[in-house]
Design goal:
Elements (H helix, E strand, L loop, with lengths): L5 H7 L5 E2 L2 H7 L5 E6 L11 H13 L2 E6 L21 H15 L13 E4 L1 H4 L4 H7 L6 H5 L2 H7 L8 H4 L1 H16 L1 E7 L3 H15 L4 E5 L27 H9 L6 H8 L4 H14 L3 H16 L1 H14 L9 H9 L4 E4 L6 H7 L6 H9 L3 E3 L2 E2 L17 E6 L3 E7 L1
Parallel strand pairs: 2-3, 2-5, 3-4, 5-6, 7-11
Antiparallel strand pairs: 1-6, 8-9, 8-10, 10-11
Helix pairs in contact: 10-11, 12-15, 12-16, 13-15, 15-16, 16-17, 18-19
Length: 424
């Protein structure tokens, strides 16, 4: 039996950014439906920007609805221009096929594909585009859209008015491909709702328009808030400082640290977005935190829930131990076993040969600094520590006395970025 207040629960969690018709979607969700969200495999891993829509699909599934994950085997060959400052790099079909396999495994962390009545479904839009020729596409899809309307969509407007960069016809046509996806899924599965990030609003409304033109039926759209970085940009594959779900690209420790270090003002929204804790429990946590003037326990709860989901309990506990060791701040409390544990738990580390190294060059080679100039600026600004002691000499050469137990050195940038140097 479906709960009648599911739409309200989504609103209470601030998960609804836009809807095409709030009242009708509210009524629609009182019966079992098919709902879909698309993901383009333009990398070999999903990132944290994908967690929110996947968890939202999970909420729909737990409610009794059937989630469809549409992998963009065709659309990823084109590239979505939505709110991008420049054209995406085009990838080969072979690369996309390899990436699809890895991404499907990651999606299985969030949705139930077992033999239940509303088991999740994964589809590939290449299946219906591969045999469509350009004349059929232009006649059956393209004729239903005006250039005027497409130009005025916010997702491409900013690119269109920039004469130097502009937008290619390839990217410009992306919205039509995604629109056709919605019409196909309506016809095949009676999909009535598409969800996506707020940057997908233009693509979603195009699909609603085309489905009505082709099938004379009304379908609906719902967008979620975007996860925004500290610099105001959304998390994405082509952006810097991406937090990946693949442990080879972002270690479980780095993943855990991202959630531990969210802003105090964001942690309660994130608990609503990314966990299944009740609103009542989250509000109670917030009240206690403001009374006690500490937010760490709530951040740790958030980090635990998501790290366990993506990387498992063992990697969560390892990341927690690493964090405790890194942030102990007093070197005398650390044993040789602590350093062995750091490496074993996949904390950030690099191997160095037993020879002389300048500090600023190690910062660059370990990616704690972006360049020699940046490394020297960091040292000058008192941001670099060796074994918890500040080092302000830009020409400093690491010494044998910096090697704890003749093998380990703790290097840190600021209060949150640590690196273990292992000498051999």
């Amino acid at each position: 039996m479906l709960k009648k207040n599911f739409f309200k629960k989504l609103k209470d969690r601030n998960l609804i950014f836009q809807t095409t018709n709030e009242k009708k979607i509210n009524n629609l969700l009182k019966k079992k439906i098919f709902v879909y969200c698309g993901f383009d495999p333009t990398s070999d891993s999903l990132h944290i920007g994908h967690i929110l829509p996947l968890l939202c699909l999970r909420r729909f599934q737990l409610q009794g609805h059937t989630p469809i994950v549409l992998i963009g085997g065709a659309t990823s060959l084109i590239g979505d221009p939505s709110f991008k400052l420049k054209e995406r790099k085009l990838f080969s079909q072979d690369s996309i096929l390899k990436w699809m396999y890895k991404i499907k495994n990651q999606i299985s962390l969030f949705l139930d594909f077992s033999n239940i009545s509303n088991k999740a479904i994964i589809l590939n839009n290449y299946d219906w585009f591969k045999n469509m020729n350009v004349l059929d596409f232009l006649r059956n899809v393209g004729k239903n859209f005006t250039i005027n309307n497409m130009i005025n969509k916010e997702s491409v407007k900013n690119r269109f008015i920039k004469k130097k960069k502009g937008i290619s016809f390839t990217e410009f046509s992306y919205s039509l491909l995604q629109a056709y996806d919605f019409s196909v899924l309506y016809k095949k599965f009676n999909v009535l709702l598409q969800i996506g990030g707020s940057d997908q609003w233009g693509n979603i409304t195009s699909g609603i328009h085309l489905t009505y033109i082709l099938h004379k039926s009304k379908v609906f759209g719902l967008t979620l808030p975007l996860l925004i970085k500290s610099d105001g940009k959304k998390f994405g594959k082509s952006e810097s400082k991406t937090i990946w779900l693949d442990p080879k690209k972002t270690t479980p420790y780095e993943f855990y640290q991202f959630w531990i270090n969210v802003k105090d003002t964001e942690v309660y929204d994130y608990l609503k977005y990314f966990t299944f804790l009740s609103i009542k429990d989250i509000n109670n946590m917030k009240k206690k935190d403001f009374v006690n003037k500490t937010f760490f326990k709530s951040k740790e709860k958030l980090a635990k829930k998501i790290t366990c989901l993506v990387h498992g309990k063992s990697n969560f506990f390892s990341s927690k131990i690493n964090s405790k060791i890194f942030f102990s701040s007093k070197i005398k409390y650390l044993s040789e076993n602590d350093f062995i544990q750091l490496k074993k738990n996949k904390a950030p580390f690099i191997f160095l040969k037993n020879k002389k190294y300048s500090l600023y060059k190690i910062l660059v080679s370990s990616f704690l600094a972006s360049s020699n100039r940046n490394a020297k600026d960091l040292i000058n600004s008192n941001a670099i520590s060796i074994n918890y002691k500040k080092q302000i000499d830009i020409h400093y050469i690491l010494k044998d006395s910096d090697k704890l137990f003749n093998k380990y050195t703790l290097l840190s940038k600021g209060k949150k970025n640590f690196l273990l140097l292992i000498w051999k």
